[in-house]
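Quick question: what would this complex look like in 3D?
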Amino acid sequence: MTGRVTIELLDLYRSAMRIRAVELVIAEKYDEQEMRCPVHLSVGQEIVPAAFGLLFDSKRDACFSAHRNHAHYLGLGGDLTAMFGELLGKSFGCAGGKGGSMHLIDLAAGLKGAVPIVGSSIPMAVGYAHANKILGKDGVTLVFLGDGATEEGVFSESLDYAALHALRVVFVVEANRYSVYTPISKRQFVGRDVLEISKAHGVDAVAANGFSVPTVAGLVEQTIDRMRAKARPVTVRFDTYRWLEHCGPNDDDSLGYRPQGELNEQVERCSLKQLAKDLSGPSYEETLGAIMDEIRVEYDRCKQAGDGYSSGDLFSNLYGGEVS
Amino acid sequence: MREMTGSEVVRFAIIDALECDEKTVLFGLGVEDPKGIFGTTLSLTEKFGLGRVFETPTAESASSGIAIGMALAGLKPTVTYQRVEFALLGFEQIVNQAAKWRYMTNGAASCPVTYRLIIGKGWGQGPQHSQGLESVFGHFPGLKVFAPGSPESLYHTIRSCMVDEDPCVILEHRWLHHVKVCRNVIGSLRVSTKSLAPAIKHTSGGLATVVSYGIGTMEALRALKSLREHAGVEAELVELTRMNPLDLTLVKESLTKTGRLIVFDHGWAQYGVGSEVIAKVALSDIELRDKPVHLHIAPVPIPSSRFLANDAYPQPADIARKMLVWASIDDEHLIGQVLGEIGLNTDVPSESFKGPF
């Protein structure tokens, strides 16, 4: 058994701030119309992906995500050039430009799958974990899903399978309250509890306040520790909140689907601003500005680079070998 | 002659794949049960262990995706569904994920999963237990789709799909499980290194080219045998084993000789396999001497009643009728002999079949 893993809050801060800075640069540059694919930005939701990313070993662990995957990709240490390349639709993108923002799949980073069909990557993660078990490998498989994905039938099917085979898989539920614009109150019975659903399938489950940085760090440490020690699936649910629109670069409070004042309240109690104060380093604004400057340079470099495609690329990699 | 059944052939194909590639695994509801997927997986768990051959929950949506995750982690899983229609619960995973994975990762990852879907027919299977859906699965670039129509191609398909580097869908017709085949034939296939051909020519002849796939192949063979024996009429039968990518090289070669085309299609005509074959021939340089003939399933769900269902399927006798016209044979007695031996559609694969499923 490995020793207890720890998350240094300064590392967590740096990783989360990098995620936020990248997302804000994407939002800032989106109107240039060079990143011509739907983007589901993660501003407000950085802490949980950053915390898991810090304890993730890309050589042995695996991660699966969905449409809102930028934070997961960056949290795992994903390559920024490959990410911008993918968003800009260029051949140096992590998926050769064929996937786009919703498919930031990068084997080296450990992000083995990211797909926008809600719930669809959940069984993939379970299958990955089962293959690990069959192959005698002890890596942990993470799957990030939203509260909406827990409504898909395949979530329940996957819980059962993971428990049945005692798999090293973590179902990380990032509950941001909205499935596109539809609030949880219009989607789920008031007593519906993903922890109880998980437990009823034999999957351990625990929830935490996703806005409290020490709480998130503590639960993520505990989860990974347990998972390394013993193969037994677990659901961890974090409250979180998306600041920008479901898809796109803007604030969408004008649509009126969120209760008045809710967004402002969330922005005011920003976990990262609080963490900056707690760490007594440079101010949040100063740090964010400095990282964004660096990222703008990288974005511009990627934007100016050629697309790099050659004839035949449209048809390449459909099948493995020559198919007559 | 020592014989074996089609289901034993499938079982040997699975055994050979499991033995030749240690990354292969096989799972699905029923693989460990006493019936062992129509006998095709009997005692394989005992032989290979629970890490290679195992049961799943009744959860097709998850199973279809779990197989993908296993493939991404380095295994080559095969999932078995005892009827094609259950795979529709996991259709999203098959066509959105497995089919696209290699392309949308630009070759960084592949998805060597095989979905083994069994087609029911007869004995009142009815609207939701008797569909082939070859054309539905065949629609998607990135999937390899197979509908073997003979014990030989069935063996080849199963063994080669299970070790393939790409996602495969096998539409496996249950009636082929009942076909008797000489042990020597399969024995030589098992040691052969020949790979699966996308199409197989079963008979030779000059009058016409008959194209079929799946169980239609066996029925067309019955018609051609009777024609040859009673009327001396010979035609070429080409079995399409692979629906996607579709390879019509053999069909076109044959048509340049015969100039006449009959497609015997075990699917609905609209947007179907037969229509695709006819369209591709029409768009090619081949000039047919007669209008192509398309025999297909009637445009209704297959009813349970055998009194109705037998008429919904295409009649192999209709292949013979058309060929007799082309051969200018109008001797009523001779025609009666040819058609009599072919017989009408029945709802069982063989006289020994007693149900229940």
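Answer marked as accepted. Chain B has a mean pLDDT of 96.
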